[in-house]
Write a structure and sequence with these properties.
Pfam families: Ribosomal_L28. The chain has two helices and four strands; from the N terminus they run E-E-E-E-H-H. By secondary structure, it is an alpha+beta fold. The chain has a two-stranded antiparallel ribbon with strand order 1-2. The chain has a two-stranded antiparallel sheet with strand order 3-4.
């Protein structure tokens, strides 16, 4: 399973670990993914999503119905 947020599309980034001697080794920055279930009142069903903490904040701000409508307009199957 890919480490990608279903709402925002955030993926792992790459960068460097930098030592005190300024030696650089590759590393990955992983998104803060969470598994959550949401009750969608308009559809009378639960929806399971794998999303980042930033997407949880977006859902708190705009509501699950607005976020699902935006995802469907982008062509994502829910």
């Amino acid at each position: 399973m890919a480490r990608v947020c279903e709402v925002t599309g955030k993926k792992p980034m790459s960068g460097h670990n930098v030592s005190h001697a300024n030696n650089k080794t590759k590393r990955r920055f992983l998104p803060n993914l969470q598994h959550r279930k949401f009750w969608v009142e308009s559809e009378s069903r639960w929806i399971k999503l794998r999303l980042t903490n930033a997407a949880l904040r977006t859902i708190d701000k705009n509501g699950i119905d607005a976020v699902l409508a935006k995802m469907r307009s982008e062509g994502k199957n829910i």
